[in-house]
Amino acid sequence: MKKIITTSKAPAPIGPYNQAVLSGNTLYTSGQIALHPQTGELVLGDISAETKQVMENMKAVLEAAEMTFENVIKTSIFISDMHNFSKINEVYATYFDEATAPARETVEVANLPKFVNVEISMIAVK
């Protein structure tokens, strides 16, 4: 049985999908971009600020499912320019304990929704 997870503390979906789906004890999140949940405006211009907004959006989705970053077992990071990897990684690292950090992949892509620079999705387990 699946349970749809939603929160007003993260951007509302802009298509036929949900912020996250809980199946059993496993949470599958949709990708988050740097949309500010209250204003609907994109946080762009500085890759560190953009990444922080993405991670804060993800934090809100995890909290809506009664989870934290400690529950995350896998992340997928999509970036538009691999030259931004070190700055993205710097912000990302502040949300995880390196010793228990999740598995991860980082992929450079041609374009992302709304032409943002970074999108992150996660899988977490209670």
UniProtKB/TrEMBL annotation:
Q: What is this protein called?
A: RidA family protein
Source lineage: Bacteria, Pseudomonadati, Bacteroidota, Flavobacteriia, Flavobacteriales
Q: Which InterPro entries match?
A: RidA, RutC-like_sf, YjgF/YER057c/UK114
Source organism, top-level taxon: Bacteria
Q: Which family does it belong to?
A: Belongs to the RutC family.
